[in-house]
Amino acid sequence: MYRTTALAAALMATTSFAASAETLRWARAGDSLTLDPHAQNEGPTSALAHQIMEPLVMRDMTGAMVPALATEWAPSESDPNVWVFVLREGVTFHDGAAFDSEDVKFSLERAMTEDSDYKELLASVVEVRAPESHRIEIVTNGPNPIMPNNLTNMFMMDKGWAEANNAVKVQDYEGGEDTHAAKNANGTGPYRLVSREPDVKTVLTINENYWGKEEFPLQVTEIVYTPIQNAATRIAALLSGEVDFIQDVPVQDLERVAAADGLDLRTAPQNRVIFFGMNMGDADLENDNVDGKNPLSDVRVRRAMSMAINRDAIKQVVMRGQSQPAGMISPPFVNGWNEEMDSSSRTDVEGARALMSEAGYADGFSIQLDCPNDRYINDEGICQAAVGMLAQIGITVNLDAKPKAQHFPLINNYETDFYMLGWGVPTYDSEYIFNFLVHTKGEKYGSWNGTRFSNPELDEKIEALASETDLEMRNAMINEIWQVVQDEALYIPIHHQVLNWGMASNLDTIVAPDDTAKFKYFTLN
Amino acid sequence: MLAYVIRRVFHSIVVLLAVGLVAFSMFRFVGDPIDNMLGQERTQADIDRLRTQLGLDQPFAIQYWKFLSGAAEGNFGVSYRQGRPVSDIISERAPATLELAAVSGLFAILLGIGLGVFTAIRRNGIASNLIMTLSLVGVSLPTFLIGILLIYVFSVELDMLPSFGRGETVMVGYWSTGFLTKSGLVALILPAITLGLYQMTLIMRLVRSEMLEVLRQDYIRFARARGLRERVVNFRHALKNTLVPVITVTGLQLGSIIAFAIITETVFQWPGVGLLFINAIHFVDIPVMAAYLMLISVMFVTINLVVDLLYFAIDPRLRVDGRST
Known about the structure:
heterodimer; A: 525 residues; alpha+beta; 4-stranded antiparallel beta sheet; 16 helices; disordered N terminus; B: 325 residues; mainly alpha; MetI-like fold; 13 helices
């Protein structure tokens, strides 16, 4: 019964597809929050923006850095503090205005203002210069070897359009007035905005004057984007042929989508690693039953905890095979990742017990684990599994699972001693991980480091990464820092998340590790 | 009469203020919006700056006062999630919810009264018993489950009706309506049934029991004895007299149809204020949550007031009592 109707649905879907040419109906859980390209640095927001607007350099569907609005880039030969970008010739915005270095200067300066969500990625930028119409110079406060990595989501706006429409300022939360740029867009991208109702429907159509017409497939000519929040409804819409492409396929429905006729499932590792953090710095913990001591400050205890976690069991039981066990807190695409460290985690309950008694905790202890329940794939399930696994070495874990809006403040306010966190690396470089998760927490660095770990020597090394231009030397430093992180068992890595995209069989694409579908790469057959 | 109204309006305002106060004291337990608003790369300085800018570092009483003084001028602030004025967002979303509520309310009233009368007249028929048994399902199944079941049957298996959204809408002035297009009307069917089912069964059961009560009265027997046709007896004499309590309940239920639309809207991705509210909770979008809760309580208070006044108008005995006290 089910198969035949699914087939009928698929047939109807394909016929309607043939009739309305190359429309792709796209659904995912969340909508873009705004069209203002610098207001929200957030997945669905930049995914929509990528169809309409473009950065200087971008990531293709494999995650490799490719030219977009810049054709060449390199550090200046005369001054190591300057990056030079040569801009693409003959590019126009959707309204016909020509794209030149004044627009780049304007956009970067806009992204550096206080209300921008991208200002931290440009924190090292001192000045943006536009010496020629198609040449831009970015001056940093020291050599910055990975400057281009920070620009892959930094979208370019038309200066003239922004000035004419009162959109020079990034959208903020004061004043109570609508910003023109929040609901309208004028980019250089492969698709033009036709209409948009936030949280309801966004329609895009192909940009006939796109510079990359010869270079990209561009077979999808119209995109209808409807967020569908409820996972069951999203799957139903795909099964009934009402949408052609969905992201965020829930793991319990993967087999259904894969088995349905006319539908395909594509899977790839995501740029996101899931791990546990521990308060190792405090002298005594609030949330444990050990007086006057902090069991987590002992590296043997941290190692034992990591050894008690059976990552394969979590993969099989909690994730239904949809994860990749991890041994380091870096996704596999990132510069600095290495296979040896990532496969270093092993399950050894006996060894873990021995380590625990060596550390003086043969009888274990009890501690609270804080976990989100609406942020990562099956986050609460992973934590529940960990509770059982840690019980095997005598650690009684009280699980407290909460919505993300309540969970993350615990980490930032140092109110949790044992917590789950996930991390994606938009720059594809380890420095980003160290800056936020390893460096001592302070004004500028370590803002996501809830471990209270502090090693001034290591901090110096991390800071030095920013201006080390000898890439070989820099990679050696990265490796050294990773060595310390691993030796200290600073975090307990669990796994790399796996992404699943469900789509009509006539669509073809690979899955991008950043979960950002760039439709200009999609092909139809 | 006038004194009565003034007293009721005064009560209503007190209720509204209390609702707002409770709401604001609860918001801090929903979570912290700052992390949702800033990117992963935010520093401690960014967090502090935004917290001060939004006034979230102040005690909730002051936040509440700021909200009230803004609301008094018609300014509900800017949504933390969308960065747009809350009043714009709510007025964009309200038509979807109101149209859905109207259709499911109509569905509930028409079908509820019809089936109620039917099951009362044919008290022991097989059809009546079947309807009564099925109505238990309507009362006891949770809304989201009914919605998912309907989607599974009518969208996935039968491929007859859309599983999500409002279809094509047409702008009539500031009002976006789905009544004028075929896809808009078709899209209303499943959500309206899901939302109205509970109310429908409730009205049906109420009408049935009232009707059974009335049919036992002497004047019905006299009417029958006079040789009046069965239809006239049932509808002109019996049904009319069952309607007073039905109007009360229906009026109050209209409010809950709009408020309960949250679940139906989430299941069907219906772009109304309920879905907006759910998103606001996930994001801790305090201005939207506050405005929504205030609007819902204004609505309930107004409906209550109107129902009270209607009662006053319909039932002459109340009027006499009201005058004598």
